[in-house]
């Protein structure tokens, strides 16, 4: 969210400088060249290769639509596409549902600035652990002999261990929700923190209850935060493959997993098709989210 | 807001939320002290021991559980992180410096740079592997993987520096120039000390992001493993508490980095204050 604001500022703020205009070009050139060569070119290459001819172990630059046809007629690939969309939607909703109340508390109810900072820092600290370690940490939690089953059985809530907790779609969703919900909490808490509390006080003085205030004031004003959080979460979840590899026991295949296995068996053209499909999906999701809220206006 | 019932409820929920965030990591840390080699990655703790930490460093008698290949991987990961840190910080500072004046196409360039942190590693990684394949270049951690790490961390450095330059008073530099100091010397003596906290933050971002990065490395680094790749290799097999012990150690390393950063930051702030006092006197 801050980057939008920064972009706005850099474009509108006239900065006094006494250097020749050529200087800016020289300063900019290394970064632009780097990004063009190592970001734009690889992405274009991916689109190009998706139309190449795939033989058993290699690819040839003869253009064909065959890989695309294979992708859209194969149950495996279409299934992966559907799984990706489903898991993305569930995780997105889960991060909002799990993260919003925490953000509400931190952003609006905690008046003490120091406590607010401490709580936000507490949310960020887990990111100082390796991402893969955080994913792996769910295995001893969710397993048949895992911590959660042990606690449930000791409390007498269940007699037998719940096996569906690990190596299932549920474990992937739990893991992703925990890892990504902080990206939802941050932007929402930021937007809630900017709400002028006198508006809420005025509504209270006029006799509005909490739910009414929440529905008509708090929720609409926090929407840009939800959208920014949704963009972060969506881009990360759609590009995922490690969590499903670690926690699903190969039962959940996302588009990312398809790309990894196709590259592993040297099916470059198929991998490229899956990559292009994923890129288009991601672009569509981000564009749709940006339509909901005009970020430039709101931030 | 005086809805104190709601406030208590939300407070309790936030406490639960923190348990959700930290629970798995705490369990992982506890289980890393499981006895070995017969103790598995689950409760109960048969006996508290540091067996798996010793196992990690090859200090235990050989057992059926293969040690993690971390020695070489650690050197590679640190080397890669340092290279990435230096290059992306330099690129970030120069690009942000260029953004201090208005120029045509600044919007396009801004989004081009920021795209680097948005595009998932699996996509750029695949693209890079395809480019390397087509050109017949071998993939290595210090070549193809390195350039992708910079693509990822350079935007972070750029945004940090942009924020710093936005609060920057250009009259300091102008004073220096009008006294006839060369631009290069002005940058070294005036600009750089002022932006140093930002540079430090950019370096911290770049180093830790690269040290932890794995999806880009997976596709672009060829056969040699970095640390995250070594961990990823354990995903498909049975997990033993040695991975947990490694997780604890790498977390402590990250905290040490954060501590160093905080200390350097404090020193820089203190020095700035001292200079300010001297100027007043």
From TrEMBL, chain A:
It is a multi-pass membrane protein. Residues 81-291 form the ABC transmembrane type-1 domain. Coiled coil: none annotated. GO terms for biological process: transmembrane transport. Pfam families: BPD_transp_1. CDD domains: TM_PBP2. Gene3D superfamilies: MetI-like (1.10.3720.10). It is found in: Cell membrane. One of its GO terms (cellular component) is plasma membrane. Keywords: Cell membrane, Membrane, Transmembrane, Transmembrane helix, Transport. It comes from the Bacteria. The chain crosses the membrane at residues 25-51, 87-110, 117-137, 170-192, 213-238, 268-293. Belongs to the binding-protein-dependent transport system permease family. CysTW subfamily. This is ABC transporter permease. It comes from Ensifer oleiphilus.
Automatic annotation (TrEMBL), chain B:
Signal peptide: none annotated. Its main location: membrane. Residues 74-261 form the ABC transmembrane type-1 domain. InterPro entries: Bact_Polyamine_Transport, MetI-like, MetI-like_sf. It is found in: Cell membrane. The keyword Transmembrane helix applies. One of its GO terms (biological process) is transmembrane transport. One of its GO terms (cellular component) is plasma membrane. Belongs to the binding-protein-dependent transport system permease family. CysTW subfamily. This is ABC transporter permease. It comes from Ensifer oleiphilus.
